[in-house]
Write a structure and sequence with these properties.
The protein is built from 4 helices and 8 strands, in the order αβββββαβββαα. The protein is an alpha+beta fold. The chain has an 8-stranded antiparallel β-barrel with strand order 1-5-4-3-2-6-7-8. A hairpin with a 7-residue loop joins strand 7 and strand 8. The chain is globular, with a radius of gyration of 16 Å.
């Protein structure tokens, strides 16, 4: 990584840290045994790779989602984690992407409306072909705890490391 790029990323993360409380990601994750018909729903191809992936839940991820590029820092395990994201330019992404070799995954993400929420269905490709996982995000932990999934969502695998993207990418 170039010194200038490294400095820009550190600077953006410092600014985010000073200006905000730690943003939280609250989500539940489910297997999808019977895929609903998805042809009428918005979807996007996602490629992501990990720069850092530690057993204690610390991750630094690069993602290309359509024509959007981002670097995401996550910390914690389970259904509530700290999450910080910054947008990158394509050139910044391309400079960092080689460092993720051997720690990548590819998936198609569909967005399915469910009442006031969006269910994100990830259909994995390449070595994880056939794996389909749904994620539902929440504003509050209590809401996540009380969520009653529709019948087409299968087993709740929230917090199960076998279905974490960082493990799937390794």
């Amino acid at each position: 990584m170039t010194t200038a790029l490294n400095g820009k990323i550190r600077s953006k993360i410092r600014i985010m840290s000073r200006n905000q409380k730690a943003p939280r990601e609250i989500e539940r994750k489910f297997l999808v045994p019977d895929l609903p018909t998805l042809t009428n729903y918005p979807h996007i191809e996602i490629s992501q790779g990990y720069l850092v992936s530690l057993d204690n839940g610390l991750q630094v991820r690069l993602r290309k989602s359509g024509d959007r590029y981002s670097l995401t820092y996550k910390r914690g395990t389970g259904n509530v984690r700290e999450e910080r994201e910054i947008e990158l330019g394509a050139d910044q992404f391309e400079k960092l992407w080689p460092a993720t070799e051997g720690k990548r995954l590819v998936k198609t993400r569909y967005e399915i409306p469910l009442d006031a929420r969006i269910v994100e269905i990830d259909v994995y490709h390449e070595r994880h072909e056939g794996l389909i996982v749904a994620e539902v995000e929440f504003d509050e932990e209590e809401t996540a705890k009380n969520f009653k999934p529709p019948a087409w969502l299968g087993d709740d695998v929230t917090g199960d490391p076998r279905y974490s993207n960082q493990l799937l990418a390794s």
